[in-house]
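Fill in residues.
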């Protein structure tokens, strides 16, 4: 019998919250990481890449 529940198990939600909190605090403690993450995502999303972002 298959369950129609679309949510993951509760332990995975708790694990994601705990692990995500650690990553969030790392980004807050060192803003350089936040800048690097922003630059990488903006270059991947931009059609011109890093060249268009730096102009």
């Amino acid at each position: 019998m298959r369950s129609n529940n679309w949510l993951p198990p509760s332990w995975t939600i708790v694990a994601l919250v705990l692990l995500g909190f650690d990553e969030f605090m790392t980004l807050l403690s060192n803003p350089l990481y936040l800048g690097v993450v922003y630059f990488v995502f903006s270059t991947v999303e931009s059609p011109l890449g890093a060249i268009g972002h730096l102009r």
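The two ends are 57 Å apart (CA to CA).
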